[in-house]
Amino acid sequence: MVKLHTNYGIITLELDAEKAPATVKNFLEYVNSGFYYKTLFHRVIDGFVIQGGGYNYSLGTVSMSSIAKMAPKSPNAPIKNEAANGLKNDKYTIAMARSSAPHSATSQFFINLKDNDSLNYTVADKQGYGYCVFGKVVAGTEVVDAISKVQTGNRYGLENVPLEDVVLKKAEEVQ
Fold first, then answer.
1. 12, 14, 28, 111 - which has most CB atoms within 10 Å?
2. Phi and psi at residue 94, to the nearest 5°
3. What is the pLDDT of residues 128-174, one digit of tens each?
């Protein structure tokens, strides 16, 4: 179990180490090292996903929030994509974000806001590899829903960036 403490409330995750062992290990390494401390949910698409885990939150800014000073974090090496594990990108599941390369996930993750069948594994090629689900939200769905409703815009080369900070203040492993 992991608790994500955000400025909108707490999201509690149950991770599935049986079906996604390498992905859970990777995520917990980031959690336990403090990597997610004061990072941003930098991509919010209502009815699709909320995404975080890759950009620092800069303290002390007011106008345009920290977006103007949003800086990418330096993640660990990419991991093998375990999307063929049978878990689906259903509403309130957590999955690893990645580039178009199937095995490129590092620190960024997203929480599905609906059943996103198009993100599921279908075949082991670039188009069908999918996004690895490694857990689900077991408490705090109202927090996820509140984050999904923030106003967003296109800023600094990124789309769907919240116009007011959505901060992951800390992530902690709990029993």
1. 111
2. -110, 140
3. 999 999 999 999 999 999 999 999 998 777 899 999 989 999 999 99
